[in-house]
Every structure is written in structure tokens, then in C-alpha cells.
Design brief:
- This protein is mainly α.
- The protein has 7 helices and 2 strands.
- The chain is globular.
- The model has no long low-confidence stretch (mean pLDDT about 90).
Length: about 190
């Protein structure tokens, strides 16, 4: 259990950019990157990895994953969208992320919709997902320990089980994106 607790600590599951963490003033790209580094820096795997780069942000903008910026500054809503992209791109292709965000961007174009409520639900679901994950990983750890074998084999079972679960979740998300896509194409 010590190994599992150390793993859970290293995962930094409480890490999130909440609405109150985002300044009310618009930020330049370097400030956006600093915000993401400050919040998610502990979650990267190695020092060579980057949380967010100028190239990533520019590619998101070119791919029209978020609404155009004004005067080279990113609003609170841009940062919320970039955070959504950050979380989605870990499991989905960029084209799937774009498809997923399309209805949200469309709603943002109307004056009646603000991203704030949606974003609060997103953060709330993250907290719920954390609890579900903690229970699942503890259950999986317990099951793998039932194989009375050396630690390496137990770890291998846990790794393969986590990868398997990750694939299930990713595939489910992709199928939902596919269901969303025809609705978007009908509107065009």
C-alpha cells in the first residue's frame, strides 16, 4: 500500500485550474503558459516535457479550437477553453477535441451563454472523477496483490489493467464524439 500511496501522491489529482485561479485581466501568451506551468508543472513526467508551449497555443488558434484572441491577449474564457483542450488532448485526437468543443464555441457566440457555469461543472466533475479513480485504483491494487508473486509481476498486472481501463474510457469518449459529429454536420 505504501507504493500505491506514493503513486497517488505523485499523480497530483487535486491539481486543477479553477475559475478563481484565472485572473480577471487578459493575459499575454507567456503569462498563460506560466499559469499552466504553475498549476500543472508537478504532473509532467519528465523535465523535458512541457505543460503548454507557444507552439501548442498557436496550433490551437490556427485549428480554431477556441475563439479568436484580441490584441494578443487571452481572456478568462480563452484560458478556460485552453484548459479544456489540455485535458481532452491527453485522450483524444486534436480533430476530436475540435469536434467536441464545436457546440460549446457555437453557444459562446451567443450573448446568452457564458462559459463560467459549464466550466464550474467541468471542475466539479474532475473532483468526482478523482474519487472514482481513487476507489478503482485501490481495488485494482488489491486484486493484483492477490497474485502471490514478486512485486514486478504485480506492478505489471496493475500497469496492464490501468492501460486497459484507459483504452475503455478513450474508446467510449471517441464513440461519443462520433455521435456528436453528425449533429454538427447537419447544422452546417
Amino acid at each position: 500500500m505504501n507504493d500505491l500511496n506514493r503513486l497517488i501522491d505523485r499523480l497530483a489529482l487535486d491539481t486543477a485550474i479553477k475559475e478563481e485561479d484565472i485572473p480577471e485581466i487578459d493575459l499575454y501568451m507567456d503569462q498563460v503558459i506560466q499559469l499552466f506551468d504553475a498549476k500543472y508543472g508537478t504532473t509532467i513526467r519528465s523535465d523535458e516535457d512541457k505543460v503548454l508551449t507557444k507552439t501548442m497555443i498557436n496550433n490551437y488558434a490556427k485549428g480554431k479550437l477556441f475563439v479568436p484572441i484580441k490584441n494578443k491577449k487571452y481572456s478568462k474564457q480563452h484560458i478556460m477553453l485552453i484548459n479544456l483542450i489540455y485535458h481532452l488532448k491527453g485522450s483524444l485526437s486534436i480533430s476530436d477535441v475540435k469536434e467536441t468543443l464545436s457546440p460549446l464555441k457555437e453557444k459562446m457566440a451567443s450573448d446568452e451563454f457564458t462559459l463560467n457555469n459549464f466550466y464550474q461543472y467541468f471542475i466539479s466533475l474532475q473532483q468526482n472523477n478523482k474519487q472514482v479513480f481513487l476507489k478503482e485504483i485501490q481495488d485494482l491494487d488489491k486484486l493484483t496483490k492477490e497474485l502471490e508473486a514478486e512485486d514486478e509481476l504485480q506492478k505489471l498486472l496493475l500497469i496492464s489493467s490501468l492501460a486497459n481501463m484507459s483504452n475503455f474510457y478513450r474508446r467510449a469518449a471517441e464513440l461519443l464524439v462520433d455521435e456528436l459529429a453528425p449533429k454538427e454536420k447537419e447544422k452546417k
